[in-house]
Write a structure and sequence with these properties.
Largest sheet: 6 strands, mixed
Strand order of the largest sheet: 14-13-12-15-18-19
Number of strands: 30
Distance between the termini: 122 Å
CATH topology of the largest domain: Rossmann fold
CATH architecture of the largest domain: 3-Layer(aba) Sandwich
Shape: elongated
Number of domains: 4
Number of helices: 26
Helix content: 25-40%
CATH class of the largest domain: Alpha Beta
Oligomer: single chain
Structural class: alpha/beta
Length: 730
């Protein structure tokens, strides 16, 4: 072709002809250079090379404004494009099939028809297949035609074969265009958006996303021959990015098709798709990956994200429910909630608020039901009011409606069947649940399935502390510490505490033995109601707290008055119990007005608090020292013979008003009932029940006594006076 044409029309430079290669300039519609492709001599070992930093676009964009809108011919390569221009045809060139992208179709929109030249080789097949697939994805609806020749490989070959004769070239190409075959592009909803995402994604350069999987073009550097390799048999894309608000860590949602053609999605740490080792975990979710293709799949995800960097939506994400910077999750529409790497949907709604409100109201005349319901509303206020965590355990006979009551309380927030858990779980599992629910009530059913009292008491301590165990991370360092601040509601056929429980179990737990329903029929009615109506009241309650800051102040003031009332009427009530009672009572009064529309609920609330307060242990019942003392006195009375001289197993000496135990015997008795001897002895010292000895200025709870000619070390304990014993028997 004439040098003048190549320089003037094609933008090439004459000085390039004196080099080992010519430079072909790729420019955009504003004549800006986007990239340079070097074309070497045909005899050279290297044929083509891109200059570093090149952004590949269709060849000829700077001429689009010159073209009319009747047609465009799409060809592979620059020389065929230049040949068509030379003979007066409108054309754009694609630098290899793999470089055709979704965004390139916007340049074709102005034309009434598009001709695609298909070369008679595998590369030509690939070019047409890619055009067809991408056209369907972008819903390109202009008429398209396949143009091919049995005689000529490409446009340049026609030009050369016909001796550069313009008239013959136009006649020949005209006949070929007249025989063009219409290209059927099937556009349906699934092809438009097969992964159901909210953005129009770009297929990364050199890849094919097909129903059969992900494929990548491999272009030979020497011959430019294109071969296709399989990345994975699973069609998969990145659907969204999720940024964790607590840690700023990033996760990604993968959307993919399983082997049975069903669509699925998972959320994983972004680090998993950034490592050829970690990415193997995706096999557990049905994605085809092993050690052979892991690097290919890893690179595909990188390329997909790069091609859609500004398109993939980023959404804030939390792994905890409850308060965050004044917002309440999951009631914030812009924050998605994850539980076990899946979208959490337990706090949804069903039925109507009015049906729930009217149905629940009839059961709130029962003190136990009303108290548990109010406690559920109390949970999200603990952190706002800086109140300590407490547990409420409703226990009693089977079929008394305990589970129905618990689920009714949880129906405030969502589907109670999804929210309730049982004691048939590990401590770690319940820790994770507590951390997830965070500011929402934790409902644990069926205490009797956990036969291990030690497990129960450890669980009470863990839940009341509001934080889990510090653990190391898989990749070194520490895992984030699990925390929560809420009310724990539990049920069972027996109490959580036992005679030998530590004081902490008693002080942290309000144990209530009251029937929440008059009969089983009422419990069934409650079940039927909350199966169809749930999730509304919690939303209304949070909205009320957020809209009126005085609500919290009013609850605080009412709580203080109720606290004073409880201690005045029940002076032996443990202070932590009184605080919990008062707070639940204050919330009951407030929600009775705001949620249930009552005008003067105070009297019902006080009746409820009195019924519960009468159920709670007093300070003396909780005192571990007094409980251990009663136990030891009972053992002395039941085993008097063990203190006699002729006893086979002697425990010590029984004196007038005191008992002297051999230390090992007493410690064994205490440990058999899970009492801590040191803790018990310290409590007895405070009460003046044990004699203290000093040896080398060191305090000891045992003393040395002479009995005849023998010295014995004993623990001396005062026994109750006779009149006290008689009184205790009445």
């Amino acid at each position: 072709m004439p040098v003048e044409f190549l320089t003037k029309i094609c933008g090439m430079k004459e000085e390039d002809y004196h080099k080992r290669f010519v430079s072909i300039y790729y420019k955009d519609g504003q004549d800006n250079i986007m990239g340079i492709r070097k074309r070497y001599h045909p005899n050279s070992s290297k044929r083509f090379a891109w200059v570093t930093g090149t952004q590949i676009v269709p060849y000829g964009l700077w001429r689009l404004d010159e073209f009319n809108n009747t047609y465009i011919i799409l060809v592979e390569g620059e020389s065929d494009t230049q040949t068509l221009w030379y003979h007066g045809y409108q054309a754009l060139g694609i630098a290899g099939a793999s470089n055709l992208k979704r965004e390139d179709f916007k340049y074709l929109e102005k034309f009434e028809k598009v001709y695609i030249w298909q070369e008679p080789d595998k590369g030509g097949d690939t070019f047409v297949a890619r055009f067809k697939a991408l056209a369907a994805e972008v819903r390109f609806d202009k008429p398209c035609y396949i143009v091919r020749s049995d005689t000529y490989k490409d446009i340049s070959e026609i030009h050369i074969a016909l001796g550069e004769d313009h008239e013959k070239f136009c006649n020949t190409l005209g006949n070929i265009l007249a025989a063009a075959i219409p290209l059927e592009i099937k556009i349906d909803a699934k092809e438009q958006n097969p992964f159901g995402v909210d953005f129009k994604y770009n297929t990364p350069q050199g890849y094919y996303i097909t129903p059969e999987g992900i494929f990548k073009e491999n272009v030979s550097k020497k011959t430019e021959e294109i071969t296709t390799i399989e990345v994975t048999k699973t069609p998969v894309i990145i659907g969204k990015k999720l940024k964790e608000i607590e840690t700023n860590l990033e996760k990604i949602e993968l959307i993919y098709y399983l082997a049975n053609n069903s669509r699925n999605s998972i959320v994983v740490d972004k680090g998993i798709i950034a490592s050829s080792r970690e990415i193997l975990e995706l096999a557990n979710y049905g994605i085809f990956v092993n050690s052979n293709n892991s690097k290919l799949l890893m690179q595909y995800f990188y390329d997909f994200e790069s091609a859609n960097l500004k398109l993939i939506p980023t959404q804030l994400m939390s792994k905890k429910l409850g308060w965050h910077n004044g917002k309440f999750i999951p009631y914030e529409p812009n924050i998605v909630v994850l539980q076990n790497d899946a979208i959490f949907e337990g706090l949804n709604t069903a039925g109507t608020f009015q049906a729930w409100q009217q149905g629940i109201q009839q059961f709130r005349f029962n003190e136990a039901f009303r108290f548990i319901m109010a406690a559920s509303f109390t949970a999200p206020l603990l952190s706002l009011l800086n109140q300590r965590i407490f547990l409420i355990h409703l226990w009693g006979d089977s079929r008394s409606g305990k589970t129905a009551t618990l689920k009714a309380a949880l129906s405030v927030w969502g589907n109670p069947d999804d929210l309730v858990v049982t004691f048939n779980a590990t401590k770690v599992g319940l820790e994770k649940i507590a951390s997830f629910y965070n500011d929402l009530p934790i409902g644990i059913d069926e205490r009797q399935v956990a036969n291990n009292q030690e497990f129960i008491e450890n669980l009470v301590y863990m839940l009341s502390l509001g934080k889990g165990k510090l653990r190391g991370g898989k990749r070194g360092g520490l895992q984030p510490l699990s925390t929560w601040h809420t009310v724990v509601l539990s049920t069972g056929e027996e109490p959580l505490s036992s005679f030998t429980s530590n004081e902490g179990v008693y002080t942290r737990t309000l144990e209530i033995n009251l029937k929440p329903f008059d009969d089983e029929q009422q419990a069934r009615q409650c079940y039927q109601l909350i199966q169809k109506n749930y999730g509304w009241a919690g939303r209304e309650w949070i909205k009320a707290i957020q809209q009126d800051k005085n609500t919290l102040l009013q609850i605080r003031n009412i709580s203080q008055k109720l606290f004073d009332m409880v201690l005045n009427q029940y002076p032996k009530t443990i202070q932590s119990h009184a605080q919990a009672l008062a707070l639940v009572g204050a919330v009951d009064i407030t929600t009775s007005k705001l949620i249930f529309g009552e005008k003067n609920p105070e009297e019902e609330t006080i009746i409820t608090l009195e019924a519960v307060a009468e159920q709670l242990q007093g300070t003396e019942e909780v005192d571990i020292g007094l409980r251990a003392y009663e136990y030891v006195v009972d053992m002395v009375n039941a085993h008097v013979k063990n203190f006699e001289e002729e006893a086979k197993e002697r425990w010590g000496f029984l004196q007038d008003g005191t008992v002297e135990f051999f230390p090992t015997v007493l410690e064994k008795l205490l440990r058999e009932m899970n009492f801590n001897p040191k803790k018990v002895f310290a409590s007895w010292e405070e009460k003046g029940l044990i004699k203290i000895g000093f040896e080398k200025d060191k305090k000891r709870y045992s003393i040395v006594k002479r009995k005849g000619n023998t010295l014995y070390r004993v623990v001396e304990i005062k026994l109750p006076k006779q009149e006290e014993k008689e009184m205790s028997l009445l």
